[in-house]
Description:
By secondary structure, the protein is mainly beta. 1% of the residues lie in helices and 47% in strands. The protein has one helix at 350-353, and strands at residues 2-6, 9-13, 24-30, 38-46, 52-59, 68-74, 85-88, 94-102, 108-115, 123-130, 141-144, 149-150, 156-157, 163-169, 183-190, 195-198, 208-215, 221-227, 238-244, 255-260, 267-270, 276-281, 290-295, 304-309, 317-324, 330-336, 341-347. Strands 12, 13, 14, 15 and 16 form a 5-stranded antiparallel β-sheet that branches. Strand 13 (156-157) and strand 14 form a beta hairpin. It is globular. The chain starts with a strand and ends in a 6-residue tail after the last helix.
Amino acid sequence: MKILSFTGVVLAISMAPNFAADEIAVERAIGTEVPGEYKHPCTITELDNGDLYIAYYGGSGEYEDDSKVWGMRKAKGATSWSAPVCIADTPFLGEGNPVVWQAPNGIVWLFYVQRHGDTWSDSRIKAKISTDGATTWSDSFMITHEQGMMVQGLPTVLNDGTYLLPAYYETGHDQEKTDPDTASLFFRIDPRTKTWTETGKIMSDKGNLQPHAVQLTDDYLIAYCRRGGTFEPLPDGRIIRAESHDGGKTWSRGTPSQFKNPNAAIAFIRLRNGHLLLVYNDSIAERTPLTASVSTDNDKTWPFKRNLAESDETQTFAYPVAIQTRDGRIHVVCTHDSRKTILHFTFDEEAILSHKADQ
């Protein structure tokens, strides 16, 4: 194990040249060298041509009206990312929380949030599409006009071909907390009829938001969600778990899971071999460490766990997004360094399976 110092943070990166599958590579995709220091949160997708594409929103601050959505590309085989370009901007209104995703039919979707007031509870969901691999984008259009609706997680393609877009309904007008009726939900998109249907909400005691769902059978889905409430440490602060038994149309009440959560976003995906990957901050207080866990038995147990990065509370790792590319590699992006830097981790699943949760 070699310990590397990286932008003021200690990252534990396994260096085993004879076992490439046990390596975790990390790079700084973008930092303060690009004007507009604020970069948060980010999202990533693999395009059909093998390029990676990151989007984030940035400007002079989280609640500033000059925030825009920016996109940047790492061409297949390239060693660096392109300079960011603005891909969504509305005069006099701030944008936030982009989600970029290429659907099976080749259309690249950009979902994002537009804030119409002083807090995120004043937001609506907008979208754009690209038919040329995220080179050019359509005009923007509304997904929902309902106040308080937001997005953050990547869509899931269900077994019947429909898309499940994670969303959440945020209430309360305090920038330091959400109200207990803040709830997760999903939009079902039928690409054949181009219709949108809102699912039932996931309710929980303190509220929850920013869900991520995986489908285990045609009818059975599970979701993990960020806990709501304040940012104060809670002894019982946990990621919220819910189930659907009708293909994602309705959801059970959310209950605390085994996983700690400091009121922070998570990533949750199903790998192509059927294993489940959860990336989260394994803490009730801080957005560090950044931890990856794997379940090989459909969420019954989570015996494998490894910190991807860790630091003190001044250098956190926030809003992870995870994908598995066609070559089988896992990619995780997150924001870091007071939301000024985007980190990009790349590894094989074996890098996590080689570490038992109790180690």
